[in-house]
Input
Amino acid sequence: MPVERAVITHAHGDHAHAGSARYLCSREGERVLSTRLGPGATIESVDFGEPVSIGGVRVSLHPAGHILGSAQVRVEHRGEVWVVSGDYKTEPDPTCTPFEPVRCHTFVTESTFGLPIYRWTPQREIFADIAAWWRANRDAGRASILFAYALGKAQRVLAGLLGAECGPIFTHGAVERLNRDYRRGGVPLPATGYAGSEPRGRDWAGSLIVAPPSAAGSSWLRKFAPFSTAFASGWMRIRGARRRRSLDRGFPLSDHVDWPSLLGAIDATGAGRVLVTHGYREPVVRWLLEHGVEAHAVASRWEGEPEGEPAGEEEAHEGTSAGGELETPEIE
Ligand SMILES: [Zn+2]
Ligand SMILES: [Zn+2]
Output
């Protein structure tokens, strides 16, 4: 829905839409937002914690730790403070400023993985697994095709492989464009080559190719054969998710909080009231009510695959639906 002034938590397609007159985002996120919205967008940016006044309300952005530039929005009016989380995670991530808990009266939290079954494996184990998978493929004379959302996850995976014996690394154009924004923002990434500028008939055995999930099953992949495929996503935690996509491997790596971190983050705000949106709302609301916190589920306009976006290129909140009542998945 186009508005006069859109305050942006981060540049993923389910949180930032083209068509508004003006945008406000964090300084750190300006470059990727501009890449996503296109050259016509009017974007203003502020440093984290720097207040601006919008219609008599004091608004400031605070790091959300989700992707480069991701922010929570703090809104203050006559001593009443609300914080809207956007997507967030508390796990360390060298590609963005770490999540910062912000004290507030009302906290509006996302709940993408808001079920007790979601508990992430320590990321260094995941990166070690990715490197081991690449090594096995190299030894077998295959290329390794790693699918990861083009904005955020791809760069986090690359940063996690910095210094590992893994590569040469090549990228799909959608990933390479954003790598450029991250590098210009000062984020250290390993060297990557754009797969599209390599000569025809090249031997790809032993290469790691990072591509958006939309490239899975496409004819673009053919030239890399023989290859093994894998997907880095929190959804790979769910039993059957890897097989449904016909992938050889799934690496459960998420840019969202898992269940314990979600509850910890809510607690750290000190909020007396919590509004839960964007994911598994009901289980989170129920848990909070049982523990004496006022909580409500709030429907969000954008859940599931964002319409009008190149399929799979966005960080899709798969597995969630606007209905809010969801089947409990089984864990792999
Ligand atoms: Zn997101
Ligand atoms: Zn989202």
Remarks:
- The pocket of zinc ion (ligand 2) is lined by residues 12, 14-15, 87, 278, 317 (CB under 6 Å).
